[in-house]
Each structure stands twice: as structure tokens, then as C-alpha cells.
Amino acid sequence: MKWIVGLGNPGPNYEKTRHNVGFMALDALAARHGMKFTQNKCKSVIAEGFIGGKKTVLIKPMTFMNLSGEAVRAYMDYYKADLEDMIVVYDDLDTVVGKIRLRYQGSAGGHNGIKSIIQHTGTQTFNRVRMGISRPEPGFAIVDYVLGNFPKKEHDLLKSMIEATCDSLEYSLDHTFEQTMQKFNG
Q1: What is the rounded distance in angstroms from the CA atom of residue 182 to the CA atom of residue 103?
Q2: Which neighbouring-strand residues pair with 59?
């Protein structure tokens, strides 16, 4: 069983913000496969189903971004889930808007959601799909930027990035993460 964690913040105020691209990607993947976020447990909303014949669980932590690790840990402990089967999907300032980058280890790079997951799992080694949001213009506060909505001129890039993320997640279910990185980091 694979489990995919999309990072974001709960509530309508954050729904369309840059920080919520992880939630957006999971919503799109769920829609592609007729999955619904109906379960509310492990500090998350959860959708379960089959993607390409593989049992897959989609998880959106409801802890707010900076405490995402609490939800990941709760899911791991309750279901005895293997960290090797987890993929985390989140926004990345160092990747240009519209692009994705896949990694299987590394530091948090200043991302508080990833920092929380590292803290609660005790490792920096887990599969990740980083969705590009680019950096703000100099002088623009990072917190205001990530909690801001995508401007209209970036909507097409956002849509194609979400599609590429969904494609990479589907591909990863039948291939190693290294093979998935080779295909989607190109």
C-alpha cells in the first residue's frame, strides 16, 4: 500500500494559496480516480482507493503546515505504515512555478512542514514531490507570499504542474521512486 501526503493548511482562507499546492494535487488525483476524502482520522482527512490496481491512501493533514509531522506520525503509528511507502507533496520556493522536482532525501530547506515531518519521523529520507512556486520579488515577505493566491497569469502553469504531479504519483505506483525521478526530473 502506498500513502501520499499532500501538505497544506485547512480551511477556505488557504484553499487557493501557494502553500496549498499539495492539497490541490491530492484533490486532483482523487478526482481522477473517483476517490473521496471522507475519513477524518489521524489528524487528517483521508481518501482510500485503488489507482492502477494499487491500494493507495491520500492524506491531507489538518494540523496546519507547521505541524504536518504530527499527522504523519499519527498515521504511521496507527496503521504501522512504512515510511518507504510514503510520498510527500508540497510547495517549493526554490523550484520555478509550474515545474516539479522529485527527491528521496534531503534537508527541510526552510520548509516548516517538511521540518516537522523530519522531526516526527526521525529521518530526512523519504520520497517527495516538490511543486514549484518560485521565490517572491526582493522585499516581499515570504509568509505573505506563500499564503497568497496564485496570480491569474500563473493559472495555466499551476494547472499543468498539478497534472504533472498527478502523472508522477501514478507512475510511482508501478515503478521505483528512482525510476520516477529519472522520468519526471528530466
Answers
A1: 10
A2: 5, 46
pLDDT digits (tens, 9 = 90+) for 67-120: 999 999 999 999 999 999 999 999 999 999 999 999 999 999 999 999 999 999
Q: Give dist(CA 23, CA 66) in Å, integer.
A: 15
The CA-based angle 115-88-137, given to 5 degrees, is: 65
* Residues whose CB falls within 8 Å of the CB of residue 138, separated by 6 or more in sequence, listed in order: none
Instruction: Confirm whether pTM is higher than 0.85.
Output: yes
CA dist 57 and 86 (Å) reads 9
Which residues belong to the active site?
19
User: Which domains, and CATH codes, for the chain?
Assistant: 2-184 (3.40.50.1470)
C-alpha cell at 178: 528512482
